[in-house]
Amino acid sequence: MSFHRQQLLRPKKRRHLPLKLALIVIIFVALASTAVYGLSHMNTPTSTTSKTTASTTSTSTNKSTSANTNATSAAATNYCADNSLTQNVIVSIKKQHLWACEGAKVQYDSPVVTGMESYPADLTPVGTYHIYDKQTNIHLKGCDSTGCWDDPVSYWEPWHSNQYGLYGFHDATWRKPTQFGNVNIYAPETAPVVGSHGCVELPLATAKWIYNWSAIGTTVTIES
Fold it and tell me: Which CATH class is domain 88-223?
């Protein structure tokens, strides 16, 4: 009987072993899956951050390229290229702009306001002139068909005179900064914003720079 009992017990032991192994395998697989899932989620922010950084870098590069293109375009036109004089202030009436040249190099440029083109006494005369005086803190006074004026200026550099009066560079602090380079010089004197009485009006900072840079005898070239 004991022999048969042993034979009967052995099969029971064999049944329990596969179940334990199965449980161990299931637990191991579950743990492995959890670990893989956790690792995949940990990697996701790194990937997203990388894309964001790449996108930001690309945007910055595009802006920089655009800025460089604009700078290159502006530098491509050298209004002093044909100048051979040590000092020459070139004023374009059409462009309402000024360039201070030392040889072929532009030392300074700025928007300006020139005279009212519809009135002979008030237009800015085209030609080549020379600065013959330099004064500070004075009043410019005069009268013509458009009326009279008494304008206080910080910097005054006359370079021409004729039957209508004096012409020169001076600041015009009564104007808004946005008006320089943008005034309709062909508008009638009754318009809200008009050109000068013939002088080349400058922003205060420009008038100061030109005054300190130029000398008596500096050439002034007024182009149409």
Answer: mainly beta
**What per-residue confidence (pLDDT) applies to 18?**
53
> What stretches in the chain show pLDDT beneath 50?
1-17, 19, 22, 25-26, 29-76
Nearest to 187 by CA among 220, 154, 146: 146
**Which among 79, 127, 135 has a CA at the least distance from the CA of 107?**
79
What is each CA distance from 168 to 32, 96, 110, 113, in whole angstroms? Answer: 88, 15, 16, 12
Query: What tokens appear for 129 in the block?
Result: 């002139």
CA distances to 114, 115, 157, 198 from 120, rounded to whole Å, are: 13, 10, 21, 9
Q: Quick one: pLDDT at residue 23?
A: 53
CB 111 within 8 A of CB 203: yes
Tokens of 124: 């800015």
